[in-house]
Fold these 2 entries.
Entry 1:
Amino acid sequence: MSGVSDYIRLLESAAGQSCSIACMGIDPVAEGLPSPSHSFSSRVLEFFEPVFEQMLKEKVLPGAFKPNIGYFHVFDAPFEERFEGSLALSKVIQLIRQHFPNIPLILDMKRGDIARSSQNYAQEAFSVWKGDAVTIFPYMGSDSVGPFIEAAAENGGGVYVLNRTSNPGGRELQNIICNDSRPLYSHVADKVIEWNRAKANVGAVVGATSPEELKELAALYGSHSVPLLIPGVGGQGGSAQQTVKLLKESGYPLALARVNSSSSLTHPWVKKKSPLPKDWPVQVVENLRILNQELAYEQ
């Protein structure tokens, strides 16, 4: 196929509208939320609703949102018939859709299975949670990735394949040298490009904490219009300014990139072991403003 998919158009449009390629990770932790005596879902809503309203008020927007499902489901207690985590996730997604209807919602689910199981996971991402994109594992190949690509295409969305991740242990497998003297992540990149040809909706996750690999892969992906999701900026030690510099040097189209930061944007006081500030919406928006400036995206 090749060409421009609905998801590519969404990324480009959102970057233009928000003047940002930042991705705001939504990873709520109990220590960073107000009203400790309230339910988790109420606390999440109490935290994010004024944050989103402040973002609109100051016209400081990200280029995408990325809720991490693992930060929500841990607060479910199914044997006690309580689903506070799932309820909190639904409330956050509804707020995002209400306030920012044209900005991509990337579900960080890291799913991957085969056959009907993969189809079910894909349905969970796009039909149940109504995401615009989802992160997935490539380890089981086309049998696993294919159902996600099809479901994404049916819903005008995209998928991000884990390629060269930001965690220190990523190199234990991803940098294994294969028989042709190329690392495994390079072979995964070849498959991402191949998968992207069919629907033009397949992207890659490449961490900011591996700058050499990021520059290499961005140069490769740029000519194929493969979207990039780049975690690792902020709390994991990656630099926003270095990241955007590498993307520009590699000739990558910036509108297709989303550079993620999570805790450094929404609750940096937790790492500092400081209490929740009274003006947290103002502080979160200021953190996002600084990240947008560091990424320096211009149409």
Entry 2:
Amino acid sequence: MNGTTTMDLLRILPEVILVIAGILVMLVDAALPVGALRRGLIWIAAPGAVLALWASLYQLQLGTGTAFFGAVETSPFTVFFHALICGIVLVALLLAYDTMPRNGHHMGEFYALVLFGASGMCLLTGAVELLVVFIALEISSISTYILAGYRKHTGKGPEAAIKYFLLGSFATGFLLYGIALIFGATGTTQIYQIARLAPTAQNHTMVVLALLLMLVGIFFKVSAAPFHVWTPDVYEGAPSPVVALLSTAPKAAAFALLLRVLYEMLPSLRSLWSPLLWIVAVASMTIGNLAALRQQNVKRMLAYSSIAHAGYLLAAFAGADSTGISAAAFYAAAYAAMNVGIFAVVTLASGYDEELPLVADFRGLLYRAPLLGSVLIFFLVSLIGIPFTGGFFGKFYSFSAAVSGGAVALAIIGLLNSGIAAAYYVRLALSAAQRPEQAQAVPVQPQIGIAVGAALLFTVGATLWLGIAPEPILRAAEAAASALR
């Protein structure tokens, strides 16, 4: 193996580790006898995620560079999102270990799908060739389509998977058509070459149409309005550990792709995409929050909340290049920490089969499970954006970026929407803090295992860290921003 091949492999080392871990899980799963518990396969999956996280940080030593004939890039930008995705995957695996059925015969497939999906997400953040972007997106999407329907014994599980698959296929088709058009206009699918050729392309209309089609596909992946209709049904039908992963890691990868497409590939069209993102951000914030106000189902409420948070993050794109990129990257990290954490609490409080899905069912959680109730309220406080939490600094940097870019009205709309969001977050917090009625049947007290306890500790610690001492992550986000050409 020559030096060039070795360096190429090092630049995709996290993806290689995740794929190898997924294959090992499948091989060991197949070798186990029928009826044997598969939960122990976590000892292959979780170390795989940890090694991939280490490999991501190790890539900082390689410096910025490309591999495989300019198809994949390694830089502080890719390392930031690689580390974020691998961290989310690790927490999701720990959460699944303690909350999925202990006698489940498909845990091997579950772990493998999570690892394979993560490899696609990591590849998506580092791809600088649009055909590799498409392949990475499909690797990620196919895994999440299957995971969304993991609870096959319920009607909502297959319904969620089918809706997600059909709508996701159409969205991917839009993205692929956009890639085809940009190739027709510039004669290449390499992002840096497109950036150089697009401003002087003879058929400028084709370039504009390509951007619009690609944005449709990316907006679907981040569940931004008006491409958000799949989100509530999928969140409600999928198991909560899957939703914890689905609502964060694929979105982080999609936002990384969005940053690369707008700031690296087509910065010459900023006068077009900047007001468009302004509109999408306002629509996502407003539609998401107003719809969440009407929800009694906790997971559907959090689904609409995630749509609103996509709008908050998109507000950062109104800022100057480096400011907007770093604010968006920081918000992605903050949102991942608090959203994975709150779905961990929902999983424990509602159970795998979600026998307690409504806001009213959480009444008295603070009294029957004080630690869990306190953690729930903490994450709700962070989602509102109260100081000393990651949610506060996430919104602060995002809206500050919008103001610095001259979009003062957008920041004001974001603040008003944050006030609206506080209503339904506080409603859930008050329900958890209320004393249960004497006539109310006492639900089984949630049991916090070691693995899920570690997941909660990690997410609480990350949310506090981002709210009290955000400088290290902000510096990493700024380094990621400066790495985009």
